[in-house]
Amino acid sequence: MAISLEAALSAPNQFVTTQSGKIAYRVLGEGKPLVLCNRFRGTLDTWDPKFISHLAKEYQVILFDYHGIGLSEGTHQTTAEALSKDLKLFIESLKVGQVILGGWSYGGLVAQSFAVIYPEMITHLLVIGSNPPGNNPVPPEQIFFDTALKPVNDFQDELILFFEPASPVSVALAEASHQRIALRTSDLDVSVKPEQFNNYFLGGASFKEDLLNTRQNLYQSNLPVLVVMGDHDPSFPVENWFPMVKNSENMQLVILSRTGHGPQHQYPRLVAGYIRKFIDNAK
Q1: Is the CB of residue 77 less than 8 Å from the CB of residue 203?
Q2: Residue 30 pLDDT > 90, yes or no?
Q3: What is the CATH number for 209?
């Protein structure tokens, strides 16, 4: 089914109330539900609409704000268990059955934890620009923190955070993505405030502590897992995935060259295509 960029830009805000409060979300497309967990500081408005529209050609793509973020009410939880429970309540409230679960950056950590706690609720796991749970040998670059923690990020910050500033190709594609995201001008979400940043870091610390033993339990299970990374991710270095590939039962790792933390924004059609092929063929 053809889904236009305009359809992605005009998908209305919707709301559902769970035991943890009201959740804001958007839906685009038809087919098997594909739920996407967002990045640090991400809202409904920060996904590239071209990526979402390509996914929505075959799936019912569901975007949402965590509790306490954007238009969602309640408290933004700070542990893997609590974040997963809130996500479970949200998915159950939609009455969509099993879902394909994806996550970008911080959202990748949420999705991995959820997959271990509630494996019966998902069929495939998609991780974009994120780390494996637990301790990882390669740390983030300081420039990521210096840039990500600014109260307001401009286009030059986005280049550093999500793309590869050393590549003219990546810079041009970053500009195109930035312009697409800016096309939505009504029914907007609410930006994340600096005072909300620490909850993300507390959640990140919980994922790193890995009391759920997600690192072992997830990647030695039979759940199909696709990881899509840029070759130069300043926040979650791709090298941290190499030990996981060697020890995983059912994981595929795709690395895009001259690409940063947001491969799906630099190459929206390509990454959506990888995802579709993976879901069609992974058992």
Answers
A1: yes
A2: yes
A3: 3.40.50.1820
